[in-house]
Amino acid sequence: MRMCAMALASSKSKWAAMTNAEIIKAVEEKQLAFYALEQALAPDYERAIEIRREVVKAKWCPSAADTHPLETVPFKNYEWDRVVGQCCENIVGYVPIPLGVAGPLLIDGKKIGLPMATTEGALIASTNRGANAINSSGGCTTAVLKEGMTRAPVVEVDSLEEAAALVKFCEENLSILQEAFESTTRFGKLKSIKCAVAGRKVFLRFVAFTGDAMGMNMITKGCDKALEVLKQHVPSMRVLALSGNYCTDKKPSAINWIEGRGKTVVAEALIKADVVEKTLKCSVDSIVSLNKDKNLVGSAMAGSVGGFNAHAANVVAAVYIATGQDPAQVVESATCITSMDKVGSDLLISVTMPSIEVGAVGGGTGLPAQRALLEVMGCAGANKEEPGANSRQLARVVAGAVLCGELSLMSGLAAGHLLSAHMKLNRKPPQ
Ligand code: ADP
């Protein structure tokens, strides 16, 4: 062990002592791998990245321009030690994305600012208008109805009979698999396994509580161990893949819409009739009627799964990028049914979102700016007293932000203002 560590240390100092030109030559001559620059020059990651940019500029996309286009991509003064080995490989810089805030929104009695990273003009202004209307009516309330990240390995056995026996074993011996799963994690708790058989293949959809983490790494480790133990009881079982798409991660699917994935959250608000008229510039009747025609009938006509909303994905994507969530999970996190009813003379609006996948620890949530924005929202990092409380709070805020977006866009459409608002906020007059 000691020899190995010493060898690594001396080879590292070898690279550190070389000039950039010498290292670039070594990469070009394949004495040093393109991907291994950070490892060779650690802890000076900025230098490693600077050298990779030179290699890319010279070999991948030479440019005749005085200033190479890659020069426009920033790379300095970033906390690369939080990125290397965790968030990104073959690093050449970072992409700055504009960040705005909407709100603060009164959610469950607390005012919370909504950070949104976006390049879509009018989105934040619209969300902000929705927040104003909700705040003027006393705020919104949320409920977390269900919680559980999922991972579904696919396994194969030698007969249909064995497939049925495997399902029965999982149903009758959950505690054995829970013990195995939970031996891999301090926070993960296996709640259930939903089995589906297709011929001799069995899909095992593990559902687990993952504390304040979004939980994909945690649940994958737990599944791996549980399968090892399952194999002791069903020796003919072969694991085809740790993910068999019955999870379903980052792809549209009915199972997430019906069963939920991550947090299942509802947010609602009762908007006073005069706020609908004065702030949102439409009538309760017109917005309720449009919600039926567009979000229910229109989406049904389109054969939608989980798309019974106006633009939940816009808000989810902007909040996810701002707070270091996995943007690919917008696919299922943004499934949402927006409901509107007239109650007395007021408007009752709700968003029901079965699959909000968020974490307050892990992944991109540890990057400085993303973490700071989670702090601004009051849900950064691990909740020591009640693990899971911070990620649940973040899921509530996501649903609240979507509620604002739905209210504002739907009222804009009902009033016929959508195009004029976009033209005003999205299109700079020609210079
Ligand atoms: P994910 O499972 O979302 O991909 P990671 O496994 O990469 O996330 O990060 C979660 C890490 O944070 C784990 O190592 C876990 O032990 C640690 N952790 C610390 N506190 C908590 C908490 N309250 N809830 C969940 N994980 C926590």
Automatic annotation (TrEMBL):
GO biological process: coenzyme A metabolic process; isoprenoid biosynthetic process; sterol biosynthetic process
Recorded GO MF terms: hydroxymethylglutaryl-CoA reductase (NADPH) activity
Keyword Endoplasmic reticulum: yes
Enzyme class: oxidoreductase
CDD domains in alphabetical order: HMG-CoA_reductase_classI
Record carries keyword Membrane: yes
Name assigned to this protein: 3-hydroxy-3-methylglutaryl coenzyme A reductase
Gene source species: Strigomonas culicis
